[in-house]
What we know:
Layout: E1 6-16, E2 24-29, E3 51-54, H1 55-63, H2 66-72, E4 75-79, H3 87-99, E5 103-108, H4 117-127, E6 132-136, H5 142-149, H6 154-165, E7 170-176, H7 184-194, E8 200-207, H8 213-218, H9 233-242
The protein binds iron/sulfur cluster.
Iron/sulfur cluster (SF4) binds at residues 32, 34-36, 39, 41, 44, 80-82, 109.
Amino acid sequence: MTGSAIGRVHSVESMGTVDGPGIRFIVFMQGCLLRCQFCHNPDTWKIGTGTERTAQEVFYEAIQYKEFWDASGGGITVSGGEPLLHLDFLIDLFTLCKEAGVHTTIDSCGGCFSRSPKFIDKMDRLLAVTDLIMLDIKQINPAKHRELTTRPNAPILDFAHYLRDHEQPIWIRHVLIPTKTDDPQDLTDLNTFIETLPNVERVEVLPYHTMGVYKWKELGLEYPLEGINAPESPVVEMANELLGTAKYN
Ligand code: SF4
């Protein structure tokens, strides 16, 4: 029955404004395979925890905000953690959304993407009810990506190609971290990659910030980027320039 799939939800936010167009209901899923050094939600990492909720329950909670979505061009975004670890839940939730005329967005790192027939079958069903994917590309350089996230970036880049081949609209987001992701050569290489994707509708540079550091401390984890501050504005400008963000706005 549509709506009965269960996902493990970390939390929800009723009036988000930065995770997709307009005002959005954001569902943060529990579980992530990456271990990004800059993660501001390390409490979403652990797989198998979070609150078990059906897609229908979450949909009914969200739909109360429909008048805000209609007024602002908003909708529902599923973020994380990593949403793609919950494909059945997403398919059910977004099917209900499309039946109700609600705009649907996934905010993903793409790290668990695979070409296995089982995954692709679900992915295709999900894409049929997904309006937008916000894809984080954290580092285009494979070795630096592994250092920054503990995982390879090959599945993420392959996911971008898959979405291109399916003409799925995407926004690319790149967190700009001094000494980690602000090398002009890396940014130029990232731009070269993005230019191979005609399905990209927007590119955003997100300046690194330290607002999630307290969560690392609460979890008893050592924060790996201690001493690194937010990038200075000339560096942010350089990144915007090299990634050609202005041409998408
Ligand atoms: S992919 Fe997102 S949730 Fe997962 S570790 Fe990285 S920043 Fe955190």
